[in-house]
Specification:
heterodimer; A: 419 residues; alpha/beta; Rossmann fold; 2 domains; 6-stranded mixed beta sheet; B: 536 residues; 3 domains; 10-stranded mixed beta sheet; 18 helices
């Protein structure tokens, strides 16, 4: 199989890179196991929420200089303010084109409400999710919160208490439906995606609307866990029309319904553009000549090679398998690319899980053009995007999605400019 | 406030719990004070090995005899805490066979069944064993769940009139002339100061008994010895594997529930470290290196966590230097030893002999109180072990099979007390360990649960391969809804729980363990935005 570019990894970075390339008529393949960090998406994408010293970022664009000083190896450090904003804008546009409606800007963070009631900085929040311009208040004074009875991955009590602290009165209710009773018969089934599926049917949403209407009283907004449909994506809008009230959803614990939806929309868009998405497959080997990769082999395709002019490594970090740790080293398992890390295992971790963990900033070494290094040499046609890159802490700096999207677009442009 | 009891027991490990139960069964009003949760010291931090005594047969005949007797008793009275796995003592080429002959002879002399079997037969019985072995001896080792055992003792003690107060730290022993008459304690959760009075105070504080004795003005010289262990992600072996040689580091591999455990290392530690021990990279490497000699597949098995306990070794009274250490049971009547009435220290021994330690202690208490009642703990079955599993299983037929088996395994016939009547109650909080909402609520209502770690000890929430990824948050939500604490406390409790899990994971955080940890961090720090307020 011959392609212009083969992308290994079908998460946010792989998909965005593939979409960008396919839009320019490149023949692309994405090899993906199907799992990615999108599966625990929060309902927002973050660009830069905090600096490495812990200080909060109000405007990601304005914070770039400070970030560059504190973390010269951060993937963003290579971008000027203009370039950073251009890449971010392009990312937002691609999302819109793929059908992911979002709110937000790279010049000014807003805040999302987390499943336990905290407020965290966000760049793009998916349509229908609770967000606020302020870190310490919500746009309403009086809301009603409805959770599915027995759904354990959503924390009404936490949310209620935190909202009250922010000056929003919250009445909490649970709802039950015959469709939920069926799910409940199996003890492991009361999870977000299963609940969301029952709301793919309009009649179930109608029943929910009746329950809410009977209890909502004078609430300005109706809040719900993000389970209002998987295939059907306008559940929030539909309820708003039926109820005549503002309706908004809050992320749950994984699996993340918005994450699954975004992944599907991006994949569909990529395929519409002519991209080939190899779902459930994984790269297991490669061939190289000199400083070039000439073929990649996958588990499902055996000795049929994936041949391409360029390759993109977007395999994520440890969780997704892009990096592998043993008790004495960290490696990149597919190409054996050089990994930037600290040798002493004792230094990989902090004893407090909630402090920055050094291993989070380990990643594959690249040159300025984001090409991977191996044994100190640049591999000419292997680019790295997203969480596989070193030099940043996605959680502490709130920049995971941003790094994935911006570096994916950057890589795509570099590949296109080689033509 | 002042409360009165016949006996105050300080320490909620297996020994303290055993003393409380024994007192209660003999009609003595007992009050047990524990500074944290039950079974958090050496009791909860060992192999969970139901020793046959074979390990001590060559070096310590007395301990070996005590072990095999108690082993047989526990199989009877604590069947829901015990797994009858049997054990193998493997001789590897580097060990030679010389020790084996001596070993078998010593076992038999101590009353321990010990049968030499063909290495091929041993490998058939336990396919994970090192095929390079040159000899194998089968002995009646087993596995015991120390937490369940302690809990069952306390449930029975309470059923017979004892009172148990966890999170009560003793701050002072009240002394009147040459007599201890009670204790002052602080309720660690509310900060309230309390006073308790009794005829006799029993020091069952394990390694912390050293300080308790000092509070009473007497000296019990203890030597903290750290022992580190590793937990593997699945059950590697079904039979306990030992090395047939003089006891050494990392030479016991014990199966327990869904996991296997290798241990231990042994090193002296200073007293200021006993409250917070970390397993070092060297210890992990040593345990792995030696462990793979017992079962080579350990080299490729995921390690879930590493943890360490402190053995409360007691220096012999006639050797104040501490070089001569006793591993046997030590009951100190401070009246005869130090001229201090009303104070008894029970220490030394081992988990295996907790019941016997309690018996000796309560015999002494009876003597002091002029009570003429015989110990019955060797005959009376513990709650949870009083009915056959099949019988309980039949009565709980409406509960899904995996959930039912897990609940009965953990609680024996007390599983019937779980509220699993409707589908919502049967909904799973923890998929790895099959813990239902109903089981969580039972623990919250009846088993003295004050935080998520307490809950974990009683239900195994968060002890599976994911180490509390999703179940921790679910359980915190249920606790907050049950009014156990406010949502702010619930979140900080969640932070503490996740950090307690991380403490065990960090020393072995590579491979899949690192992947899980990264996911946990993304989820709780990233998605949820939880913060550790203690450090901010």
């Amino acid at each position: 199989m011959r392609f212009d570019t083969v992308i290994i990894g079908g998460g946010l970075a792989g998909l965005i890179c593939g979409i960008r390339l396919a839009k320019q008529g490149e023949r692309c393949a994405i090899i993906s196991l199907g799992h990615s960090a999108l599966h625990f998406s929060s309902g927002s994408l973050e660009l830069l929420g905090a600096l490495p010293d812990g200080s909060t970022v109000v405007s990601p664009a304005d914070a770039l200089d400070a970030l560059r000083q504190m973390a010269p190896e951060h993937p963003y450090a290579r971008y000027s303010r203009e370039r950073f904003l251009a890449l971010a804008a392009e990312g937002a546009t691609l999302m819109q084109e793929a059908g992911v409606a979002t709110f937000g800007s790279a010049e000014q963070n807003h805040y999302r409400l987390t499943p336990v009631g905290a407020m965290k900085p966000a760049w793009l929040t998916f349509e229908g999710y609770v967000h606020s311009p302020n870190a310490d208040s919500l746009p309403w004074k009086n809301v009603a919160l409805f959770n599915a009875e027995g759904f354990l991955d959503f924390y009404a009590q936490f949310l209620k208490d935190e909202m009250l602290r922010m000056g929003t009165k919250c009445a909490a209710y649970t709802f039950n439906l015959p469709e939920l009773e069926q799910i409940r018969q199996n003890p492991t089934e009361m999870r977000s995606a299963n609940i969301a599926r029952i709301f793919d049917k309009r009649e179930t949403l109608d029943k929910l609307a009746d329950i809410i209407a009977a209890k909502m009283d004078d609430a300005e907004a109706i809040l719900l866990p993000a389970v209002l449909g998987v295939d059907c994506k306008d559940g929030v809008r539909y309820l708003e029309q039926k109820l005549g009230r503002k309706v908004a959803v809050i992320a749950t614990l994984p699996p993340s319904v918005p994450g699954l939806q975004v992944q599907t929309l991006l994949r569909r868009y990529f395929q519409e553009l002519g991209g080939v998405y190899m779902l459930g497959d994984t790269a297991v080997g490669y061939k190289s000549e000199g400083n070039k990769i000439t073929a990649v082999y996958t588990r499902n395709h055996g000795d049929i090679p994936f041949l391409a002019t360029n390759y993109v490594l977007a395999t994520g970090s440890f969780f997704s398998g892009g990096l592998e740790a043993t008790n004495d080293r960290i490696c990149e398992p597919l190409f054996g690319a050089d990994v930037q890390y600290v040798a002493d295992r004792g230094e990989w971790y902090d004893r407090d899980l909630f402090k920055p963990q050094a291993y989070e900033s380990f990643g594959v070494k690249t040159d300025e053009l984001l090409r991977a290094m191996r044994q100190g040499q640049v591999i000419d046609n292997l680019y790295v995007a997203g969480a596989t890159l070193p030099g940043f802490n996605a959680v502490k700096e709130g920049c995971g999605a941003g790094v994935s999207i911006l570096t994916a677009l950057d890589v795509a442009e570099r590949i296109l400019s080689k033509k | 406030m002042t409360k009165q009891a016949d006996v105050i027991i300080i320490g909620g490990g297996a020994t303290g719990a055993g003393v409380a139960r024994d007192c209660a069964l003999r009609g003595i009003k007992a009050l047990l004070l524990e500074r944290g949760d039950i079974a958090t010291g050496a009791t909860g931090r060992n192999h969970g090995l139901l020793h046959s005594g074979a390990r001590y047969a060559v070096t310590d005949r007395e301990s070996a005899e005590e072990c095999i007797k108690e082993n047989m008793i526990l199989r009877r009275i604590a069947s829901h805490c015990v797994e009858e796995t049997d054990g193998l003592f493997l001789s590897l080429p580097e060990d030679g066979l010389e020790f084996q002959a001596k070993f078998i002879e010593a076992c038999r002399a101590a009353g321990i069944r010990a049968d030499a079997i063909d290495p091929k037969e041993a490998l058939r019985l336990e396919p994970s064993a090192n095929p390079a072995m040159i000899g194998a001896v089968r002995v009646p080792d087993g596995a015991v769940d120390p937490f369940r055992l302690t809990m069952a003792n306390l449930i029975d003690a309470k059923a017979h009139g004892a009172e148990v107060l966890t999170y009560h730290k003793v701050t002072e022993l009240i002394r009147e002339q040459d007599r201890i008459v009670g204790v002052k304690a602080v309720d660690c959760r509310s900060g309230e100061k309390k006073e308790f009075r009794a005829e006799i105070v029993v020091n069952a504080g394990g390694i912390w008994g050293h300080d308790l004795a000092a509070m009473a003005g007497v000296t019990v010289k203890m030597l903290p010895a750290k022992g580190s262990l590793l937990i593997f992600g699945h059950r590697v072996n079904n039979i306990v594997l030992n090395r047939c040689r003089k006891p050494a580091d990392a030479d016991i591999l014990v199966p327990g529930d869904t996991i296997s455990l290798i241990g231990t290392t042994s090193s002296k530690v200073p007293f200021d470290e006993v409250d917070n021990m970390y397993v070092t990279a060297d210890e992990v490497d040593l345990l792995l290196r030696e462990g793979t000699k017992l079962a080579p597949s350990l080299a490729h098995t995921r390690i879930l966590r590493a943890y360490a306990g402190v053995r409360p070794l007691v220096a012999s009274d006639d050797d104040p230097s501490g070089r001569s250490v006793s591993r046997g049971i030590v009951v100190l009547d401070h009246a005869t030893r130090d001229g201090l009435e009303g104070f008894i220290t029970i220490t030394g021994g081992k988990l295996m002999t907790y019941r016997l330690m309690a018996e000796w202690t309560v015999d002494l208490i009876c003597k002091k109180l002029n009570i003429n009642k015989k110990c019955t703990t060797a005959e009376c079955k513990l709650p949870g072990s009083r009915e056959k599993e099949e019988k309980i299983s039949k009565r709980l037929h409406s509960v899904p099979v995996a959930q039912r088996e897990s609940a009965i395994n953990r609680h024996g016939e007390m599983a019937e007390r779980l509220d699993v009547g409707d589908a919502a109650a049967r909904s799973l909080v923890c998929e790895c360990e099959e813990v239902s909402v109903g089981e969580v609520k039972y623990a919250l209502n009846e088993l003295d649960v004050h935080n998520l770690v307490d809950l974990r000890r009683r239900t195994r929430v968060g002890m599976g391969t994911c180490q509390g990824e999703l179940c921790a948050c679910r359980a915190a939500g249920i606790m907050a809804e049950a009014g156990k604490y406010c949502s702010h406390q619930a979140k900080q409790d969640l932070v503490s729980f996740l950090n307690e899990r991380w403490k065990g994971m960090a020393p072995v955080a590579w491979g899949d363990t690192l992947r899980e940890s990264e996911f946990t961090m993304w989820l709780y720090d990233g998605v949820c935005g939880l913060k550790n307020e203690k450090t901010e």
